[in-house]
Design goal:
The chain is mainly α and 90 residues long.
């Protein structure tokens, strides 16, 4: 569930951030935060929380920076999960 849901949420987040749709960014970051928390991925979980707060505050610069950091953190977590559970991570 983490892999498939996260792949979908990452794509949605990238599209929303690119379109500067801060309401959508906040909703997606909020949803994705739980996914990360459920697998113990603390850095992406924290970044989602910060991204949600930045979007709610209308801070476009922070949203762009945090979205990039979150994409990198998700790639790292995905890679680690793929090693731990071959054939199950996205």
């Amino acid at each position: 569930l983490y892999a498939s849901g996260s792949t979908r949420l990452q794509a949605q987040l990238e599209a929303a951030a690119h379109a500067a749709d801060l309401d959508a960014v906040a909703r997606i970051a909020h949803a994705w935060k739980s996914y990360h928390g459920n697998v113990g991925a603390r850095r992406p979980e924290r970044l989602c929380r910060e991204l949600e707060e930045a979007a709610q505050a209308g801070d476009r610069e922070a949203v762009a920076r945090l979205a990039g950091e979150l994409a990198q953190a998700y790639t790292e977590v995905s890679g680690a999960l793929a090693l731990e559970f071959p054939g199950r991570a996205a």
